[in-house]
Write a structure and sequence with these properties.
By secondary structure, this protein is α/β, with parallel strands linked by helices. Helices cover about 40% and strands about 20% of the residues. The strands form two sheets. A five-stranded parallel sheet has the order 2-5-1-6-7, with helices on both faces. The protein is globular. About 35% of the residues are buried. The mean pLDDT is about 90.
Length: about 170
């Protein structure tokens, strides 16, 4: 049974899909909200307990959103024999990619991404111009990068139930 990494730019619908998967009884975890990800000072390697909101200019140059390999390993070990979904994005994803059996990348166009980030109420990431620029830059590179990795690309502009169906269908291949 696969452990699936559901990823994509900030604002592509990862948390929404995670909530839909949970509502359907699937073991699904939100890397941002369930403690898998954290801000790290790239200079010292130390986790940042209380990041500024909004971030000051230049903050994203020094600090990165990273995932804990130990926490992902624990998830994988605990899900033996069951399909599980971890939904998130992390700059150090390459360090944990080997733990996943399948990668699904949610994609949206930049206009949709901009609109979602500026309008969302679940968190403020992407509202600050520097954060928005970083999200759009990442979005521009993501589709081709994930295709090269063999990820399943899912159109995140579709209604959330349909996106969730596509994520579930990807696990059946």
């Amino acid at each position: 049974m696969p452990v699936v990494w559901v990823t994509g730019s900030s604002g592509t619908g990862k948390s929404t899909v995670c909530a839909f998967l949970k509502s359907r009884g699937e073991p699904a975890f939100d890397a941002d909200w369930d403690g898998y990800n954290h801000w790290v000072d790239r200079t010292t390697g130390q986790a940042v307990a209380d990041p500024p909101d909004p971030v000051p200019a230049g903050w994203l140059d020094r600090f990165g959103w990273q995932i804990s390999r130990a926490k992902v390993e624990a998830l994988v070990a605990g899900m033996r024999g069951r399909t599980a979904f971890l939904c998130g994005l992390a700059e150090n994803e390459a360090e944990v990619r080997d733990l996943f059996d399948l990668v699904v990348c949610l994609m949206v166009d930049n206009r949709t991404l901009r609109d979602r980030l500026l309008a969302r109420t679940t968190n403020s990431f992407g509202k600050h111009p520097e954060e928005l620029a970083a999200a759009l830059e990442y979005n521009d590179r993501a589709k081709s990068a994930y295709r090269r990795l063999g990820a399943t690309i899912v159109d995140g502009t579709r209604p959330p139930a349909e996106v969730t169906d596509a994520v579930l269908a990807a696990t059946a291949r």
